[in-house]
């Protein structure tokens, strides 16, 4: 039996008297695309911050490929192979698209930071950067300042930066938020391609995206996971319908018919 890519056991997080995460237990298998859904205030962002090191757990365990990471600093977790994006675009707006991605590639290839190094001479870095930009369809915009990209492309660039570090566990926080229908379709296709063979954990409010992309879905309500299953089973789960999906599940079924 394989070791889960990510294993969460009886995880709790409180802020003073407010108990936000209430005993979450979840295993995510290597190569799985797993979605976390739930109403606003359910604790999804808190859970993401706990996993990626933004918050320390009040109690419980978070393991990355069997190694405890709960309470570890974010940069250390990243170096162990877990990378995440954020709800709000988190890019270097004054740098070019290529330079944004190249920053992540440098560390993933073991170069680190060197003030006097001419990165233009690092052909392996340049090649890997170009490969990532091509995989997310941004190679033709590589020389543009990131601030000049349209919103959807900025979100795409953030995904590229997230995967540039070479992590095999990728966490995306609402990657299609604010996108049009056509932009969302393009983003989903790019995410699938760019994360092929990696483990993906995604928080997303667009149920069309979730049911299109996820192998399994966990439903978080008031800090507790009330169900984890394959998309079809989640869609038909009466407890989930009552707590969150409601008529939206019927709409998704209608779209798929």
From TrEMBL:
<dbReference type="InterPro" id="IPR027417">
    <property type="entry name" value="P-loop_NTPase"/>
</dbReference>
<dbReference type="InterPro" id="IPR003439">
    <property type="entry name" value="ABC_transporter-like_ATP-bd"/>
</dbReference>
<dbReference type="InterPro" id="IPR051120">
    <property type="entry name" value="ABC_AA/LPS_Transport"/>
</dbReference>
<keyword id="KW-0547">Nucleotide-binding</keyword>
<dbReference type="GO" id="GO:0016887">
    <property type="term" value="F:ATP hydrolysis activity"/>
</dbReference>
<dbReference type="GO" id="GO:0005524">
    <property type="term" value="F:ATP binding"/>
</dbReference>
<dbReference type="InterPro" id="IPR032823">
    <property type="entry name" value="BCA_ABC_TP_C"/>
</dbReference>
<dbReference type="InterPro" id="IPR003593">
    <property type="entry name" value="AAA+_ATPase"/>
</dbReference>
<keyword id="KW-0067">ATP-binding</keyword>
<protein>
    <submittedName>
        <fullName>Arabinose import ATP-binding protein AraG</fullName>
        <ecNumber>3.6.3.17</ecNumber>
    </submittedName>
</protein>
<dbReference type="Pfam" id="PF12399">
    <property type="entry name" value="BCA_ABC_TP_C"/>
</dbReference>
<dbReference type="Pfam" id="PF00005">
    <property type="entry name" value="ABC_tran"/>
</dbReference>
<feature type="domain" description="ABC transporter">
    <location>
        <begin position="6"/>
        <end position="247"/>
    </location>
</feature>
<keyword id="KW-0378">Hydrolase</keyword>
<keyword id="KW-0813">Transport</keyword>
<dbReference type="GO" id="GO:0005886">
    <property type="term" value="C:plasma membrane"/>
</dbReference>
């Amino acid at each position: 039996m394989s070791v889960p890519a990510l294993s969460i056991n009886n995880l709790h997080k409180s802020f003073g008297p407010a108990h936000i995460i209430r005993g979450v237990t979840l295993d995510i298998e290597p190569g799985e695309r797993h979605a976390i859904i739930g109403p606003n205030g359910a604790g999804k962002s808190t859970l993401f911050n706990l996993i990626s090191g933004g918050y320390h757990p009040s109690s419980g365990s978070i393991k990355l490929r069997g190694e405890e990471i709960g309470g570890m600093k974010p940069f250390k977790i990243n170096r162990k192979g877990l990378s995440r994006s954020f709800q709000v675009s988190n890019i270097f707006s004054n740098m070019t698209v290529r330079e944004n991605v190249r920053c992540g590639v440098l560390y993933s290839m073991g170069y680190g930071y060197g003030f006097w190094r001419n990165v233009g001479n690092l052909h392996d870095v340049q090649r890997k950067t170009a490969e990532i930009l091509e995989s997310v369809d941004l190679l033709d915009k590589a020389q543009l300042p990131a601030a000049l990209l349209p919103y959807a492309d900025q979100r795409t660039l953030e995904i590229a930066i997230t995967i540039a570090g070479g992590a095999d566990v990728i966490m995306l926080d609402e990657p299609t938020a604010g996108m049009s229908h056509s932009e969302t379709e393009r983003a989903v296709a790019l995410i699938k391609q760019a994360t092929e063979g990696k483990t993906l954990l995604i928080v997303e409010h667009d149920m069309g995206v979730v049911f299109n992309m996820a192998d399994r879905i966990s439903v978080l309500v008031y800090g507790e996971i009330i169900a984890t299953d394959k998309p079809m089973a989640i869609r038909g789960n009466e407890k989930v319908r009552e707590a969150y999906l409601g008529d939206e599940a019927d709409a998704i079924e209608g779209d798929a018919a």
